Amino acid sequence: MEIRTFLGADADDSVLARFHALFEADGRRTFPGFPAQPFPGYAANMRASRHYDLGPRRVWAAWEDGELLGYGTVVYPDRHMLETAIPRVIVDEAHRRRGIGTALLREIAADARAEGRATLAYEQVRIGTDGEHWARAVGFANTQLRRWQMLHVADVDPALWEVPVPAGYRLVRWTDAAPDDLVAAFAQARNAIADAPHGDSSLLEPEWTVERIRQSEADIRAAGESARFVVAVCERSGAVAAVTGMLLEPGRVDLCWQRDTAAVADHRGLGLGRVVKAAMMRWLTVDIPGLGRVVTNTAADNASMNRVNEQVGYTHYADIGLFEASVEQIGAALGTAAAVPAPRTEPALGGITRPRTSAAPSGPR
Ligand SMILES: CC(C)(COP(=O)(O)OP(=O)(O)OC[C@H]1O[C@@H](n2cnc3c(N)ncnc32)[C@H](O)[C@@H]1OP(=O)(O)O)[C@@H](O)C(=O)NCCC(=O)NCCS
Fold first, then answer.
1. Could you give the CA distance from residue 6 to residue 351 in angstroms, rounded to a whole number?
2. Which protein residue has the closest C-alpha to ligand 1 atom 23?
3. Distance in angstroms (rounded) separating the CA atoms of residues 259 and 264
């Protein structure tokens, strides 16, 4: 078994199809009933050098006799969370418990150390699966429990989305770019998301400013994705009082992700979270015929948001853990702490790997 860096940008479809097959098989096992990301979107992500709204991504793959046994990715957020690296490791079910996941993590930890990152933070480990057992065994600690809830559009009575807007508020919605006259108020309102419980996790929302909103919109556009927002505006003050967003992969109707729902403290207790979520569902179901499911990701102890989700038709799908470890500790445990990895020349595999000509630049980029 050999681990080599993998450059998605250079990879042809037949190679990426092997990565996708592994990813899809793990999805069927770890997330049954969850629609797998179709190949075109997956391949576009693997070819991009950045995670769409976080930062640069690197990939390592484990090979044996030309067979792909597993792969690991790490994302280095470069707009915020500059101390954190976000890894993800997947090993083919037939090759688990051979130390491959750990070997991939060793590469990631050495790279994260060379990048000057302090913390490794996994963000979507399903509780009770191999991922959790492994994460704990290799030295990660659970820092937060989250809940994924799923809304099956065909099973929900649309009457649940007929929620009146309280007097004194109006709804505004947009796709991709916030209107200029609302963007400052929108940035302010998005900071209310920081009030959501985050346990001991270091995975935090950025501080939203107009500039950061515009940057995020540009990142999403550059990744070929699309975002929609519905906000409630307070007529008296002009403040944005509640926000919800939706991330859509163009051409994909089986699944989209709800994100960034919050009601600003001064405007809580009026049901505005439910109002904006319900309005989003009315909009999406008219605009996207055949829309299958919507998934939302909420802290398990955020009782009010979980209840709002149930009121608009979401049901519990999965318990998810955020797991974190210090790069130094993981490095020491796995034997990577002694030195920054030396430059290596990778054996060529159909043009998909390239020599790593220098150690990664240190410090956040
Ligand atoms: C998590 C995953 C990457 C582990 O890969 P792996 O190659 O099987 O892991 P390793 O062989 O390196 O395991 C190292 C140790 O972790 C522990 N471990 C791994 N899987 C375990 C399981 N299912 N139950 C209990 N302990 C487990 C063991 O202590 C193991 O050592 P041992 O086999 O000598 O007892 C793999 O199960 C996987 O792809 N899961 C789905 C994706 C996922 O959840 N990824 C993790 C978060 S991104």
1. 10
2. 130
3. 15
pLDDT over 80 at 346, yes or no: no
Sequence-distant (≥ 6) Cβ neighbours of residue 41 within 8 angstroms: 249, 252
**Of all residues in the chain, what percent carry a pLDDT higher than 90?**
78
Residue having the nearest C-alpha atom to atom 12 of ligand 1: 99
Q: How far apart (Å, rounded) are the C-alpha atoms in residues 55 and 295?
A: 23
Give the residue, out of 88, 134, 140, 322, with the most ligand 1 atoms within 8 A of its beta carbon, to mutate for a pocket test.
Answer: 134
Domain boundaries, the chain: 2-147+322-334, 157-312
CA of 100 to the centre of ligand 1 (A): 8
pLDDT digits (tens, 9 = 90+) for 25-59: 999 999 999 998 999 989 999 999 888 888 999 99
Mutate-to-test residue for ligand 1 from 74, 88, 130, highest number of ligand atoms within 8 A of CB: 130
CATH architecture type of domain 157-312: 3-Layer(aba) Sandwich (3.40)
With a 6 A CB cut-off, is 105 part of the ligand 1 pocket?
no
Domains 2-147+322-334 and 157-312 share a fold: yes
Q: Cβ(134) to ligand 1 under 6 A?
A: yes
Q: In the chain, at which residue ranges do the beta strands (DSSP E only) sit?
A: 2-6, 57-64, 67-75, 84-91, 119-126, 141-152, 169-175, 226-234, 240-248, 255-263, 293-299, 315-326
Q: Which fold has domain 2-147+322-334?
A: Aminopeptidase (3.40.630)
Q: Is the CB of 136 under 6 A from ligand 1?
A: no
Residue 187 beta carbon below 6 angstroms from any ligand 1 atom = no
